[in-house]
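Students often ask why we bother encoding 3D structure as a string. The short answer is that it lets us treat folding as translation between two languages. Here is a chain of 85 residues written in the first language.
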Amino acid sequence: METRVAVIGIIVENPDAVEALNGLLHDYSAYIIGRMGLPYRKKNINVISVVVDAPQDVISALSGKIGNLQGVSAKAAYSNVITHA
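And here it is in the second language, the structure alphabet:
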């Protein structure tokens, strides 16, 4: 199995989506290295970065599921370092 390190940038515009977002992150917690969230009160949004070490398809699945939440945007940026487990 090959894994990559990636960061998933998340912008939450809908506070009602936070519970579902946290549920998804919990489901993928085995792959999460760390996360950082910053509330931007002036714009009433939250900006979250999640760093993962996972197979490409797992990263894509998580990013896609997050992006499908109402009022949530997500994009993944991948490292070029591939680890063979």
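Translate back mentally: The domain at 2-84 is CATH 3.30.70.1150 (Alpha-Beta Plaits). Keep this in mind for the problem set.
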